[in-house]
Design brief:
This protein is an alpha/beta fold. The chain is 39% helix and 16% strand. It has 14 helices and 15 strands. The protein has helices at residues 4-7, 34-47, 62-68, 98-116, 135-143, 159-168, 171-178, 238-245, 265-276, 290-296, 306-315, 330-340, 354-366, 379-401, and strands at residues 22-26, 54-59, 73-77, 81-83, 89-91, 120-124, 147-153, 181-185, 202-205, 226-230, 254-258, 281-284, 299-302, 319-321, 345-346. Strands 3-2-1-6-7-8-9 form a seven-stranded parallel beta sheet, with helices on both faces.
Length: 402
């Protein structure tokens, strides 16, 4: 059971000019860039508050974080994880075994958070951190009186797998021990990731973190109009990128493929070889203005990651999703739920081909724009209020304790 005395410890008094409130955001970042990109969007939303807090990102993807961090934000880099196609985890760069990697990450997290003493800690997806790596740090920040929030994306996995993993991770016990609230970054009417899960903490559904993402316009060498293909970090998206690269583009349109920083070099070389044979296709490793490219694209083909989908929905760009189906069904569940709302189209990996993409892009640029689907995309605009409520609850409780 949560220690009520620690829970009501007063937060930092910022009225004496000694410093701003402090917020830490943790993501484990084993696969792709989705977790850190979501935390960056949250950091930008909080940094826009009138009394913006100091922000500290704890991540295995520091390069992605540096590229888009707001002012008043710093970064702690964790030794990087990697996940293979079978779902096995290990070190991305170091020649250390999983046990030593876990020990290193746990030590870094505890040292950083115990020293920073955040007033609010926002944890992405894993209530104990990846394989429990956050537990010592959770004890430390609770002892300092921090509010702790678990952030959950719109879909965890299929219902059976999500329930099994929640039980195995003792998610309910973790919420009871350390957490004040759960923020679900989605629309409950589209999909409820917590259905069937025991969640002994206050749950707030924010809406998708879609509208209001920072999107500095960058120049692109692709002549507009263009069709865009993007596959997240790219480690398992080569099949989508290659099918797009061999597809027929609509007349008068160019193609842009964002391969992703983690796509294997041989796959990138093969893409560039295809592009060298045609004059209407460009391949780039990464694009700092992915959201801006999506907004300007005539149509988008991609995998079904949370951030890509949010950016396309916000831009009302025609979107074809080829979801990842192994080792998780998260992208498939998301794509099918949103397709039922008329928000996007889906082609399964077994049905993917250059002809399938050619037919879809031709139809997508000809049809009239779809009406805005009845989906809540305004989560980012709500986060400052949720944050203020969270801090305000503590302040009020502290007055009662005093």
């Amino acid at each position: 059971m949560r220690d009520e005395t620690r829970r009501r410890t007063p937060i930092r008094d910022t009225t004496d000019g000694q410093g701003r409130l402090r917020v830490a955001l943790y993501s484990h970042d084993a696969q792709g860039l989705g977790h850190i990109r979501r935390n960056l969007a949250i950091a930008h939303a909080l940094s826009a508050m009138d009394e913006a807090p100091d922000l500290l990102l704890l991540t295995s993807a520091p390069d992605a974080a540096h590229a888009g961090r707001p002012s008043g934000c710093d970064i702690v880099s964790l030794p990087a994880l990697a996940k293979d196609g079978a779902g096995r985890y290990g070190a991305r760069h170091l020649s250390v075994d999983p046990a030593q990697l876990s020990e290193m990450r746990t030590a870094v997290l505890h040292a950083a958070l115990a020293s920073f003493r955040p007033d609010v800690l926002i944890v992405d997806k894993h209530p104990r951190g990846f394989r429990g790596e956050l537990e010592p740090a959770l004890d430390a920040v609770r002892a300092h009186g921090a509010r702790v929030v678990l952030g959950i994306r719109d879909v965890l996995d299929d219902a059976h797998t999500a329930a099994r993993e929640w039980r195995e991770a003792e998610g309910a016990a973790a919420l009871a021990a350390w957490y004040d609230e759960v923020w679900v970054y989605g629309d409950r009417d589209v999909h409820d990731p917590l259905a069937g899960l025991e969640t002994p903490a206050r749950v707030r559904y924010t809406g998708y973190l879609a509208h209001g993402r920072p999107a500095p316009r960058m120049r692109t060498r692709a002549d507009e109009p263009f069709v865009l293909a993007m596959v997240g970090a790219g480690q398992d998206g080569a099949h989508v990128a290659h099918a797009f690269a061999r597809s027929r583009l609509p007349e008068g349109h160019r193609g842009v493929v964002i391969a992703g920083p983690h796509m294997p070099d041989p796959a990138v070389h093969a893409l560039r070889a295809i592009a060298a044979e045609r004059d209407d296709l460009r391949v780039v490793r990464s694009a700092p203005d992915a959201a801006g490219l999506i907004a300007r694209a005539a149509a988008v083909v991609g995998m079904g990651g949370y951030n890509t989908v949010c950016e396309a929905l916000a831009a009302r760009a025609p979107l074809l999703v080829v979801p990842r189906v192994e080792p998780r069904l998260e992208q498939l569940v998301r794509a099918e739920a949103l397709a039922r709302r008329g928000a996007l189209d889906v082609v399964l990996p077994d049905d993917l081909s250059p002809d399938a993409i050619s037919g879809w892009t031709a139809r997508a640029i000809r049809r009239a724009p779809r009406p805005a689907p009845p989906i809540d995309l305004d989560g980012l605009s709500r986060l400052p209020r949720l944050f203020a409520d969270l801090v305000g609850m503590r302040t009020e409780e502290s007055r009662h304790v005093a």
